[in-house]
């Protein structure tokens, strides 16, 4: 997939493929959703691309990050702190352009009130947050389980648009992603971001990459609406939606922050563009907000990109990640030598 993305005419190459399909798509979807890994099923649609992510690109998620920080990861304080934080911030942040003079004035105001935060710095300051979400070949795809470590008691899905960028920094297509987040961990310290974000099966991407072609371009996604649904085995249901028209920075700015003279990606990269929705709806006791339970079915969908569906489970119970770059090289060398290859 990384090599395909580097072709200027990637979409045409796919359309002109003359061979017969190896699988029936409906059967792939069925086996992916029922968890039958002994039948052909969908994988994450990327391979050698690094998975990068941008944080705090929507006002709603920025405010929630500030709340996590002020709560020190304690969900029991969230409702009280949310009331205080939103009272101070008000609705003045919706139209602010990060890095602008107006944003700097807000920074001075909040600092004077003792409300400045590292999350407001990347939300309103000149530079966006860009971090590495997952190692190469570790993401999971449509129908796979997504992992929530047992040490976390406050966590949530993060529905996002994922841009597929080639080695030259050009966006070739897009898909959907779930940047699974542990709010109690990151809330204790932003330096625990790796522990909060990068765990087994904590990065879901799919269902497929839609390549840019004809009238489907990057501009088609600037107002894309993404919907989140969580359905629990306990009968709980959560719904939310937001539009990429509300993103605080243009896609080009996020890409330039990730790749440029300061950093290159010879195999390209997948870029999560920021969560559109931070669920706060109470699930159990009043004021405790939302957190996942095992068996939650998470659906992230949009008109142009379809639906990414996954079911949550304990990270420690997920199949361990074993097929990495070394295993891939071994697999390819066996194929080249004509020996029966095992994918492990």
Automatic annotation (TrEMBL):
Species of the source: Pseudarthrobacter scleromae
Fumarylacetoacetase-like C-terminal domain span: 137-311
UniProt keyword annotations, A-Z: Hydrolase, Metal-binding
GO molecular function, one term: hydrolase activity
Keyword S-adenosyl-L-methionine: no
InterPro entries: FAH (IPR051121), Fumarylacetoacetase-like_C (IPR011234), Fumarylacetoacetase_C_sf (IPR036663)
Descriptive protein name: Fumarylacetoacetate hydrolase
Record-stated family: Belongs to the FAH family.
């Amino acid at each position: 997939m990384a090599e395909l993305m580097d072709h200027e005419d990637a979409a045409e190459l796919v359309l002109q493929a003359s061979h017969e399909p190896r699988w029936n798509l409906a059967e792939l979807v069925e086996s992916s959703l029922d968890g039958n890994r002994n039948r052909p099923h969908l994988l994450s649609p990327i391979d050698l691309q690094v998975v990068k992510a941008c944080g705090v690109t929507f006002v709603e998620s920025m405010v929630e990050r500030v709340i996590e920080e002020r709560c020190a990861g304690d969900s029991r304080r969230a409702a009280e702190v949310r009331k205080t934080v939103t009272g101070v911030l008000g609705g003045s942040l919706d139209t602010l352009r990060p890095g602008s003079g107006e944003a700097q004035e807000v920074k001075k105001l909040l600092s004077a009130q003792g409300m400045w935060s590292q999350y407001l710095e990347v939300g309103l300051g000149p530079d966006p947050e860009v971090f590495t979400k997952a190692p190469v070949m570790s993401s999971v795809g449509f129908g796979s389980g997504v992992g929530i470590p047992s040490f976390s008691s406050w966590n949530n899905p993060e529905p996002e648009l994922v841009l597929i960028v080639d080695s030259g920094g050009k966006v070739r297509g897009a898909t959907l992603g779930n940047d699974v987040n542990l709010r109690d961990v990151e809330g204790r310290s932003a330096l625990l971001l790796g522990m909060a974000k990068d765990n087994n099966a904590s990065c879901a991407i799919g269902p497929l990459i839609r390549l840019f072609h004809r009238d489907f371009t990057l501009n088609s996604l600037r107002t894309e609406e993404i919907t989140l649904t969580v359905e629990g085995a306990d009968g709980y249901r959560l719904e939310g939606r937001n539009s990429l028209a509300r993103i605080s920075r243009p896609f080009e700015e996020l890409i330039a922050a990730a790749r440029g003279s300061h950093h290159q990606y010879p195999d390209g990269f997948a870029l999560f563009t920021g969560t559109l929705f931070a669920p706060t709806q109470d699930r159990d006791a009043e004021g405790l907000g939302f957190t996942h339970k095992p068996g939650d079915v998470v659906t992230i969908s949009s008109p142009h990109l379809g639906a990414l569906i996954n079911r949550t489970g304990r990270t420690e119970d997920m199949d361990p990640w074993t097929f990495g770059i070394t295993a891939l090289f071994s697999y390819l060398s066996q194929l080249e030598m004509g020996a029966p290859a095992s994918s492990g």
